[in-house]
Design a protein that fits this description.
alpha+beta; 6-stranded mixed sheet; 18 strands; 23% helix
Length: 274
């Protein structure tokens, strides 16, 4: 299959989820073989799991003097639409939260248009299964044709029933079944999140707040298992830090960004060594 890029630039702007400042992201076409790169704070660099600085309630990357928070939703849209080459200009220190999902990014990328390039995709073909365990959290990857993500959630201590969701990450399935799933938090956690310097830009317009009864404080869920689907969205974004077309089935149990990135680093090193 051929690599892809954008036909023209596309922009998304608005306040970030955790830092709360207004920012702008501009997706730009890029040459075949150039991969996904970021332009920010006077630096231009190619993305890699090795650039991850922090995984506390989001994925933060750092390259020299450039620090960008919460990159996973933006990258998830590129993963879902199978964009191989793109220069992402980020004006600010965090991509816009939009409505808490990746749908605004998907729509921006589709408005820009996606086209094939001359170069063939760099296929990342897994030869054998890998697994990582972190207390009661597990993530495994097994050989697969294409990219599939399965997630098993358990938020029962917050009154939410355990659930599971699985999806082949194709453009049509991703847009319809994954991209609209919003980020979420629990009412009982608000205090420590604020103390940690997070959720400065959060509101009921860009996140789901779950009350003590396990139900949204305001509004309704877009999917009955929206929280679980958002975890699939996050994994797609975290694994987009790996440059190349992923062929693997990612199976995760109760993981967060920390475990996602640890596995992404293992996979990235595996292919870098070849």
């Amino acid at each position: 299959m051929k690599q892809t890029t954008l036909i023209k630039p596309a922009a998304v702007e608005g306040p970030g989820l955790h830092k709360g400042k207004k920012t702008t992201v501009i997706f730009n076409p890029a040459p075949g073989g150039s991969g996904i790169s970021v332009k920010n704070s006077g630096f231009t660099y190619k993305l890699s799991p090795a650039l991850v600085l922090d995984t506390k309630r989001g994925t933060t990357i750092r390259y020299k003097g450039s620090i960008v928070h919460t990159v996973e939703h933006m990258l998830s849209a590129l993963q879902g639409l199978r964009v191989d080459n793109c220069l992402i200009e980020i004006i600010g220190n965090e991509p816009p939260a939009a409505d808490g999902s990746s749908f605004s990014y998907v729509m921006a990328l589709k408005r820009a248009g996606i086209c094939e390039q001359k170069k063939e995709k760099t296929e990342m073909i897994l030869k054998e299964p890998l697994m990582l365990a972190d207390e009661d959290k597990y993530i495994a990857v097994i050989p697969w044709k294409g990219l599939k993500i399965s997630y098993f959630s358990d938020f029962s201590k917050y009154g939410v029933k355990p659930a599971d969701y699985s999806a082949d990450i194709t453009p049509s399935i991703y847009e319809k079944e994954v991209s609209k799933a919003r980020t979420f938090g629990f009412k009982s956690e608000i205090g420590w999140l604020i103390k940690a310097g997070l959720i400065k830009g959060a509101s009921l317009k860009n996140a789901i707040l779950i009350g003590e009864d396990g139900a949204p404080v305001s509004g309704t869920l877009r999917y009955h298992d929206e929280l679980t689907r958002h975890k699939v969205l996050d994994i797609a974004g975290d694994f987009k830090l790996i440059q190349g077309s992923l062929n693997m089935h990612i199976i995760a149990v109760k993981t967060g960004h920390k475990q996602n990135i640890e596995m992404a680093k293992i996979i990235n090193k595996l292919f870098d060594n070849k």
